[in-house]
Design brief:
The chain is α/β, with parallel strands linked by helices and 362 residues long. The chain contains 13 helices and 13 strands. The longest helix is centred in the N-terminal third of the chain and has 21 residues.
Length: 362
Amino acid sequence: MRVASVTVDLLRVPSVQPYMAAGREIRDYWHVLARIVTDDNVEGFGYVVILNAALVKPLADATRELADLLNGMHVFEPEAAWKKLTQAAKWVGPGGFVNCAIAPLDIAIWDAAAKAAHQPLYRLLGGSRDRVPAYASDNLWYNLSLDELATSAQKHIADGFRAMKLRIGNEETPQGEVRRVAAVREVAGDGVRIMVDATETWETNQALQAGRALQDAGIHWLEDPIDHQDVTGMSRLANVLHVPIATGEHLYTIGEFSQLFAARAAGVGIIDLARIGGVTPWRHVASLALTSNVRICGHVLPELHVHLVAAIPNGHLVEYVPRSERILRSMPTLKDGNLLAPSAPGLGLTLDEEAVRRFRVA
């Protein structure tokens, strides 16, 4: 079961509803899509999603160049493939651009391996369970008024979510942030978990003040309150506040996560599948977190992360902010607040080939 061919496409997928993030409007989701075909005609695919047009074309080119190294590799040896890819690009790694270029290829190998084994990916990876609680993370942005925030939260509840995450950090006082949480709580009720993401807005002392107010308001976690590089400050917050600190989506290497966990600076680790370099290293970070009693979530890409989080014993929640539904025949099913891991072999996803053709730019 060896790789016979690899193709890589760059897609520009318009967002269903443009929104503001990090001070700019998000109108497109750039996808680097890799597909491998084995000598037994099994096809696997994987992709990463980039919100910024800068460097996406060089990224797709890097993925294409690395793809040539996979020819002849066995799909049941993803560790060997990942090692070969990272060593080939060692002079510009580890992490960063290299990981994002490798990730679509690594995901595609795992998809093909699970299909060849006639098993869904979550089961091939360990199969801790077949569903994971999901939280709504879309359309809960900073720029929404309290009324708009409540309306959006109400829709998420109607769609079946029992947890959601709103972005905070733009208010002048902690009380202003609490009011945003209260607006969501009023329509969501006490049985819904509310997380907040401060997107690295504050200094440590500000984060302590806001964190105390927010934990009293009943939040489930406080995400990225300060710069992710300030592990000492994050550790201080984690040891003073009662509410868990969630962080990790900006980290690129297993070593960075090791430092984070060793410092006891996170109660919830969030792993970005692209930045870490695919399924292969994602699994290692999750195992490392288990030794520190840290729960694990993925960053966006719910249709992929549902498999990874369902596979591990310390999997916590799946972030539901769909960015690829326009190129897929269907998304995984949400039932009773849980995202169900697809039962079909591999990722259990089917590309909409007409949409892929329509959105292909290179």
